[in-house]
Amino acid sequence: MNQELIEHMAQFMSEHKQELFHEILAKRTRHLTVMIENVYQPHNASAVLRSCDCFGVQDVHIVENTNEYTVNPQVALGASKWLTIHKYNQKENNTVDCIQALKKQGYKVLATTPHTDDCMLSDVDVAQKTALMFGTEGDGLSDVALEHADGFVRIPMYGFTESFNISVSAALCLYDFTERLRKTDLDWSLSEAEKQTLYLDWTKKVVKKSDLIEAEFLSNQKK
User: Fold this and answer.
1) What CA dihedral angle connects 127, 131, 136 and 141, to 10 degrees?
2) For the chain, which residues make up each domain, given as ranges?
3) Pairwise CA distance, residues 89 & 33, whole Å
4) How far is 143 from 72, CA to CA, in rounded Å?
5) What is the pLDDT of residues 9-63, one digit of tens each?
6) Cα 220 to Cα 8, 30, 187, 209, 213, distances in angstroms
7) Is pTM beyond 0.85 here?
8) Bridging pattern class, strands 130-134 and 119-120
9) Cα angle: 196, vertex 199, 205; to 5 degrees
10) For a Cys staple, 37 with which of 63, 100, 126, 182, CB 3.0–4.6 Å?
């Protein structure tokens, strides 16, 4: 049914848009994902989403313990529309809930921190499914996040400043990891089923009155 619905919805899009969707989906990955804990500055939060989209990282996991994650549309430039965003804000400790969920999906959860010199960014093994955790602008990741992490990674720095801000840190990490990943023979791309699901989701976001078009199509299918 999905493929038939996709073909029907595609009639309401330009050929250029259809080709663009296929081209971008071919470069999307879930081999790497990002977890953001308690970030409160809209500018930085939005910049992280923009970087994820630009580097082809499909999923972002957002932990809201005390701060609600808000998007600045002028910074994100619509990036959130194309990403799969998972929010954790229902549990007593949403950080643990998120980390456990990531580990169940086979991710090695790495905390980005300048304080624990476990391994350099360039030494992270891209063969392993990886979730990179980023913390608040002032305090970094919580003690709970550090306690439950599988390892620690830091970005090399050569100046007086103690750390990069979160948006810069995320961009540097995503660039390094995805560039090395794409040069391997690893199967890092989405499955055909995942591509189909996202293609349909994206289509609904650009086709006007897509909900009505879909409802009419499904109704006709039942006749």
Assistant:
1) -90
2) 1-28+192-223, 29-188
3) 19
4) 28
5) 888 899 999 999 999 999 999 999 999 998 777 677 788 999 999 999 999 999 9
6) 12, 35, 39, 17, 11
7) yes
8) unpaired
9) 145
10) 63
